[in-house]
Amino acid sequence: MKPTKQILDDILNEVRPLIGQGKVADYIPALACVPNDKLGIAVYTNDGEMITSGDADERFSIQSISKALSLTLAMELYQPEELWQRVGKEPSGQAFNSLIQLEMEQGVPRNPFINAGAIVVADMLFSRFSAPKHRLLEFVRKLSGNEHIIYDRVVANSEMDHSDRNASIAYLMRSFGNFDNEVMPVLKNYFHACALNMSCIDLARTFGYLANKGIQPETNEFIVTPMQSKQINALMATCGLYDGAGEFAYRVGMPGKSGVGGGIIAIVPGEMTIAVWSPELDPSGNSLAGTQALELLSERIGRSIF
Amino acid sequence: MKPTKQILDDILNEVRPLIGQGKVADYIPALACVPNDKLGIAVYTNDGEMITSGDADERFSIQSISKALSLTLAMELYQPEELWQRVGKEPSGQAFNSLIQLEMEQGVPRNPFINAGAIVVADMLFSRFSAPKHRLLEFVRKLSGNEHIIYDRVVANSEMDHSDRNASIAYLMRSFGNFDNEVMPVLKNYFHACALNMSCIDLARTFGYLANKGIQPETNEFIVTPMQSKQINALMATCGLYDGAGEFAYRVGMPGKSGVGGGIIAIVPGEMTIAVWSPELDPSGNSLAGTQALELLSERIGRSIF
Amino acid sequence: MKPTKQILDDILNEVRPLIGQGKVADYIPALACVPNDKLGIAVYTNDGEMITSGDADERFSIQSISKALSLTLAMELYQPEELWQRVGKEPSGQAFNSLIQLEMEQGVPRNPFINAGAIVVADMLFSRFSAPKHRLLEFVRKLSGNEHIIYDRVVANSEMDHSDRNASIAYLMRSFGNFDNEVMPVLKNYFHACALNMSCIDLARTFGYLANKGIQPETNEFIVTPMQSKQINALMATCGLYDGAGEFAYRVGMPGKSGVGGGIIAIVPGEMTIAVWSPELDPSGNSLAGTQALELLSERIGRSIF
Amino acid sequence: MKPTKQILDDILNEVRPLIGQGKVADYIPALACVPNDKLGIAVYTNDGEMITSGDADERFSIQSISKALSLTLAMELYQPEELWQRVGKEPSGQAFNSLIQLEMEQGVPRNPFINAGAIVVADMLFSRFSAPKHRLLEFVRKLSGNEHIIYDRVVANSEMDHSDRNASIAYLMRSFGNFDNEVMPVLKNYFHACALNMSCIDLARTFGYLANKGIQPETNEFIVTPMQSKQINALMATCGLYDGAGEFAYRVGMPGKSGVGGGIIAIVPGEMTIAVWSPELDPSGNSLAGTQALELLSERIGRSIF
């Protein structure tokens, strides 16, 4: 069955009662103050149709969803062997910001979607771009077709004020020779990427290339090769939802990437990209109502990669 | 493109030079003596076609591939909440036989495909079946349509003689209250399951239900619900290849389950089941040439879940 | 100042208010039912004087204190290089029954006073003695001069009924080749050693050789060399109080060994042996009031190795 | 037996053949270039006698031995409860610069002698002193009676250039709220303390107070209380030799503190302080010949705390 406005409306109504059972991220004040009852969804099909419901056009902090964008840029800039000797492709089995495995594995992070891995990717972008923040913004504006996307400076600065754990991660990698630049400037760029403010509509359109073999629908712009598109989806499927990737695959059955701002993007390869947003998180740090909405959508439209 | 005999022949020729670069499992003598140059592949489509190449009809020890069969039986016997409170659904991020995470997580294994998880499943089958070994054999013979499938007693006994690590795992779970029966009888059943002798043809046919929404092709027998079939595939995709699940998803892009006997089964949901065999393993314990063959097949026929 | 009956009486009065603030060991029923208000102390000097207060002649389960006796026997039976290649001499920094470090360090326990280490020692005694239980009992009766010391069979059997964790430890070491005999018979001996029933008076006299350069006071019997006596004291000082060895050294300043039955023995080398008993434990598993009594005694009589 | 010049000469001759079997610290160039055949020892008795042999008056980098001095200052400045809520008193059971335990234990280091613990102590001194480097130098000059003691700036700067691992440790503690100041200025002070250049004679005299109940011999200056002196010795006995504290207690039987510059100080409470120096280290990071010299001295003069 094709997704319709009606299906999306129904699903949001069904998951809305979950609001109140999760917990809005509160490690920085700028995130803690987001109203917990926001709820939106956008489906963007490979033939360019955009179907939405709820607060689909309201912007929020995409947080770790940006890690998929940074990875895409790094895959454009670096040869596979350069990239994958510095970061792995395996699920970590540990919390997203843990240092334990990182120390035992000599400073090579398990995958690009845990903090350590995304920070290595940020370091690699920093080495190649003269103005990494500017380049990422340009990239996102192009992908989304929305020139108004900006960084939320309050969020970025707030992250920087609470950066000790990530600084610890970066210095540990540096001590193992897996970090090339000064720590603080790289972290600043990393936090800006996390502080991108985007709506479900922006996100669904931005990640269209992952559902369309690397070509952006509508604009037909080449972003990555079909192989790279498949690889990014594979990495999201095994590592994209923190320590809840297995559960997400089991329930939703789509490659996805979540952020602690409550957003999730999910891909139905060959067909569509979906973005949901609900700020309250489950214990793994993924949007509670958002995950449930994706599970229901997967069932209703009969789409799953499995 | 459809898989053909010619494509399979070509692929085996291409991967054959890898033989000599891996390492046959040698932790028990019965496995160490398997000739390292065996190489076979079988593709079984949902419309009942079987395409093969190389040693596709020669039997080998399926080892951990049996974990997907035991899980299927447990999902038939138990309610989801009964099953999933005793074993998780997340990648472990650690070696398949590690006790570290098991101790930190209070005796609940990460997933049913690491040893600890499969041993819990064996314990659950033991609690419900009066003759678990007999029932599993019956189940496999039915699925494969091959009445001649048997346990390799030499392998099973050899595993039992080298069972200390698995006994340690079982007793640790027992100390946490997550193991109900006597340890040794359960392990005996567990080792017998691992000692099933099957060919690529047997395996491809056996797992047909996972490519066909829970219904066995040809016989049309109901094995599991479409939802359960999807769930098993999801678990294989995130956890089915030991500590190489991410790499396998990245390269092959199919749910799969491997065994240290050198076999791998892989699923293209809605289309086909593939079984490969080459005894030499890579450092993660997955068949070296077998993985490469699946990667090439995925490319040639343009099939991947991503 | 010399220890006197008056000093001991005063100290027991001072520490008695701590009763109610700790927790009697309850992992087996036979220990959980010991009255929590028992309190006793015995000081045995190298010139054969025995000074006591409180319940000093009441027997209790010595539990892990027996590990120092088993180690003494193993040091008599084996060459140092044989013994110390199978068990280390370093503090573990982890819980007494953890498997994590044991797995990471290839089945060689950190020291003879954590469970894994004591089980290796039990395995070594089992290999050399035809009737290890009998020999240990003989040894203790000789050291204490008390022919009435016996094993508490209820405790020993109760431990055996709750032996899963220790069985897991033993099998893990066996999988690394650091365990030579059948697991269950060795554990049975290990649990019997822990189930020795002795009073403070028995214990103080038994361990007299550690304060007297290896020679039992009064009987002048040779037990170990002066060097071995010094070595056992050193091991107790760094590893004898579970994960509270540092705190014990800081507060009490004597080599010691504790048991979850609430007993502690402490050594003032060259002068005296002290045994205390109070069943309630602190969070590290050491007698709460017992430790405090030893701290006060150390201050009053001005004895500490530091 | 009393230590004599002859005994010290004999011991150095006996241990000299070990030179060539260890490894000079090479993580910074300034340490790697120290001649490996230096060998010195100094014994300083409580009645003010100084007995020496070999290169006892040649200065070297004291490195982690400084941690005992910084701890002494912190114990003077802070109440025990203030100090010990920020750093523990237990052996770590892990490498001196590991982050694993530190993360699991919420940023509270195991003891003041592993890097993390010493960095917390440095943070505490930084909070109280306006010029911590100056104050420490003043303190050491007073204790040693040697006005010429200085920091080796080349070593200090070289440490700062290789500070990533320690920065990672500091930021991790900061993320847990156990670090109050800016990371880099504190590390700078920490590295200067490690870069103190002192001879065996300087060290033996400096630590005289730990053998003399807190009073400096000869000058009779009060440094710490008898209780504090005992406590520092206890901490050195259980935690002072990295991951070799148990072995050191077993072989030498004295509280001690080592540094990767090859120096070790050891205390015979009530009698004397000993300092040895030989730059080659054993695998635990302690001076190979230095430890052996202390073991021989302990045997010859019949001194051990056990």
From TrEMBL, chains A, B, C, D:
UniProt-listed GO biological process terms: glutamate biosynthetic process; L-glutamine catabolic process
Catalytic activity, as annotated: L-glutamine + H2O = L-glutamate + NH4(+)
EC number: 3.5.1.2
Amino acids binding substrate: S64, N115, E159, N166, Y190, Y242, V260
UniProt keyword annotations, A-Z: Acetylation, Hydrolase
GO molecular function: glutaminase activity
Entry-linked InterPro entries: Beta-lactam/transpept-like, Glutaminase
Keyword Hydrolase: yes
TM region positions: none
Assembly description: Homotetramer.
Family to which this protein belongs: Belongs to the glutaminase family.
Protein name: Glutaminase
